[in-house]
## 1
Amino acid sequence: MFIKFIFYLSLIILGMFAMRFGIIQIRQYKQGKTKLKKKSLEQIAFGIFFIIILGLIIYSVNSLLFN
């Protein structure tokens, strides 16, 4: 039981770090500090990564609260 809690908590924390990193990158892009190449494959890969992180966070919160 305690190991599951630690596992789910670590997924939540890693997801929050990944989302924070994404927010920083978006902010730098808007300020013009980061140049992004407009390649569709990179955008698709970023979208898939973002969806996976959101899924892990939702899965972890759901398992912690409704178990």
## 2
Amino acid sequence: MEEEKSNRNIIVVAINIAILVAYTLLIRLTNTDDESIIAVAFFIAFQFLLCAVIGIICAAIVPARKYMNGFLLSALAVVLIGFSTCYLAYSVH
């Protein structure tokens, strides 16, 4: 039972990190101007808020409660990995 719960959380986090990597690379490779960092920061903030809200909603709905930890962990991972990656991607020229 514990292994199933861990796998579920890992899958939710992995999907969110894959989405983060996809739009960060897409925006970075298609736009050469430095103003595109604002777009990446906006998408990171939006994904963070979306994961946090979904996690809170999952806490209120009993059948979806099993996904709560995965989405809250995803929100934290998106902020920590996303903004550090954003900073590194745009500091290298």
## 3
Amino acid sequence: MNKKLQEFCVGRGMEVFGSRARGVVNGYEVSVNELNVNQASNSGEYPYQFHFNFYATDDQKRDIRNTLDNAQIKRCNRIFTEYGLKIMLTDFTVGKLVERLPEIFNTVISAISSNGGLDSNYCPKCGKEFADNKCEISIDGFNMSIDRECRDSINAEIEAENKAFEEAPNNYLRGFAGAVVGGVAGVVVAIIINLMGYYAAIGSIVSIVVGTILYQKFGGKPTKMMIVIVVGTTFVFMMLSVVILYYVYAAIAVAETGVDMSTMEAFKIIMQDEEIRGDFYLDIIITVVITIIGVVADFAYMSRSTKRKSNV
């Protein structure tokens, strides 16, 4: 955790462990999670995240939301969860953020308490008062206290979902059909982009993204095999797109010259030209490289799709 943020957390009586912190501030349990650059980039969220743990009814949450809307906290995103309120913050520097944190904490905790949000003496999941039933869980990057029965219920739900997922059919053919549609979309984009004067290999990224989404939409189960099928299909279609492009160029050449020959014959002739043949192989190499880059760029999404929940 950043040193300045750590000093702030310790100063509020929180326990710091790695990139996380947890403690009771003004009667409410608060969890802190500092994302690294890659995590923040992949999730599209602000890197400095604070979870205020409390139980509130839907009406109370609406009132809390209205109060915070009026407060107009800058460079802040927020979302209600099953366990309270998640606040995501950023600023020009960590120092600037830490300077704002005392006021932000006071504003958020005041909004929660004044609108009936239960404090750290109550389970944020069910609202029951803690007795000897209190335990700690780690969920969505935050550590928090929760009722033991709620923890067991959550874990039972997760286990049931994982079992249902394991027993569900893989539907490889349906998933492959989705990957093929993604591949076709990539080819179309590649041809259009190339005719506009840009590298056609950009279509590989389209193919991977669309193929991954449609693989699941068509009924394919998001397993590691999905990654293999989508990536393999993308490679095949992107290689095909290069061949199609040069075939299109051959057709254009025949149309412009008015020579009486088939497009296939023209394709064979232009491929005998050393310079054109060199460009062809260069396009193949560039397509392979950009496809690999696309796989890496989309890997976080594909990994999230295939990752199953574990017990809290």
